[in-house]
Amino acid sequence: MLDIKFVVDNVDWVKKSLGKKGFPAEKVDELVQTFYDMNKLKTSSQALAEEKNKLSNSIKSASSEDRPAIIAKSKEVGEQFKAEQEKLSELEAKFNDMMLRMPNYPSEDSPEGPDDSANVVSRKVGDLPHFDFTPRDHIELMEINDWSEMERIAKVSGSRTYAIKNDLAQLELAIHMMVMDKLRANGFTLITVPAISKEKPLYNQGYLPFARDEIYYMPADDIYLSGTAELILNSLRADEMLTEAELPILYAGFSPCFRREAGAAGKDTRGLVRVHQFFKTEQFVICKNDIEESEKWHKKLLQISEEVLQDLELPYQVLEVCTGDMGAPKYRQYDLEAWVPSQNCYRETHSCSNITEWQARRTNLRYRANDGKVRFCHTLNNTGIATPRALVPFIENHQQADGTVRIPAKLQPYMGGKKFIGKNAK
Fold first, then answer.
1. Contact by Cβ (8 Å): 187, 218
2. Would the pLDDT of 267 be above 70?
3. Residues 79 and 149 in one domain
């Protein structure tokens, strides 16, 4: 959520900044006008309330001749007040809805563009694999090694679900354990969180009102399924007043995640890339309201995820995400994409975002700074690892001619010392 006072005082700058995300300038004007109308109505309503109280107080001391006129006037003013209150309630609801739909300001350093075609590759890391045999895709590797029950689970749970087993199931958990250990070594508090949420946290995070069609809802319980631990962690400290000494707060949140993938028809419907339920270890940071501080943490989160991909020995690229592709809550965003041999391209594994104070305003998460002033916190998030998506580049890049998959040295302790997995592994 934005600071309405800043918007009102800097309308032209706000239009220009939000315009980089494709947000219409007229909606900024409409928000400001609604704010003025609302405040004007608040003032007139308050005046009517004061007049009605004054009239009501004067009835007892009025003469019998004057009393009927005063009562009639009080009733008239009361009706006017009621009408204005109803109109004010409508205006406040409209204003609040408009505020919830205002995106965050993008960084001046983010590339400008309307969609992902304007994203910028910052760097590529690692050599692409060169196979002296015909490589298999991840689906074939799962089939020959008896690592999945994709057809059977589809009969039970429907499309875009997965069931993996044997070495691949162990690998999925091993990667999460490796990432959790790395995050704990970097000072993060490991926390497991539920995959269900009330509606308010979805507004707090910024899922709502922007992406309702992506969220699973259970009306009988009035509860939602979470698409990321960020959703829960962002509201975990809602309405709290922290001290500057408590910051930063670092969470490594692990949870099952659920996404409808409503807009992904025809995209990666086979295999493990786009599934409705998955596991994710999420990095989440709450820090003080200082752009240099939050940008420092933004780079730190990115560094950790790059280390994860390096430990997994996966070639990857770093994208600086453009203003039109980064989404409403984001101030600045990097994506990491690992190489997928069967698709001859890089595919996203991590999304690293600085949200500045946009979420904290929605959660009312504040801290008292050392100078005594109260400020809203900054929040940041990044994927630690998400599976099974990360398994796709992993098994494809590390496959061997006999169908086995090599385990990188950093991961071997989490796999019981195995250097290879698969039916032909020795």
1. no
2. no
3. no
Catalytic one of 160, 237, 389, 406: 389
Strand partners, 224: 197, 217
347 is catalytic: no
Is the pTM for the entire model greater than 0.85? Answer: yes
- CA-wise closest residue to 392 among 255, 256, 274: 274
Strands 374-376 vs 366-368: parallel, antiparallel or unpaired: antiparallel
- Please indicate, yes or no, whether residues 90 and 133 belong to a single structural domain of this protein: no
What is the mean pLDDT of the segment spanning 282-287? Answer: 98
Which segments of 238-276 are extended strands (E)?
241-243, 249-258
**Active-site residue flag, 337:** no
Q: Which of 136, 160, 237, 259 is catalytic?
A: 259
Residue 71 shares a structural domain with residue 145? no
Q: Does the residue 111 lie in any domain?
A: no
Query: Which residue type does 282 have?
Result: E
Known active-site residue 348: yes
Instruction: Please give the mean pLDDT across all residues of the chain.
Output: 95
Beta bridge partners of 191: 253
Single out the catalytic residue among 51, 92, 140, 348.
348
Note if 274 is an active site residue. Answer: yes
Mean pLDDT for 83-94 is 95
Decide which of 100, 135, 159 is a domain's last residue: 100
pLDDT, tens digit (0-9, with 9 covering 90-100), for 339-385: 999 999 999 999 999 999 999 999 999 999 999 999 999 999 999 99
Strand ranges of the sheet holding 249-258, from the earlier edge strand across to the other edge:
120-125, 316-320, 332-340, 345-356, 378-387, 277-287, 249-258, 189-192
61 is catalytic: no
Residue 140, domain extent: 116-421
Catalytic residue among 274, 347, 368, 375: 274
Q: Is residue 386 part of a domain?
A: yes
Amino acid identity, position 249: I
Q: Which two tokens stand for residue 411?
A: 């991961």
One of 17, 45, 197, 351 is an active-site residue; which one?
A: 351
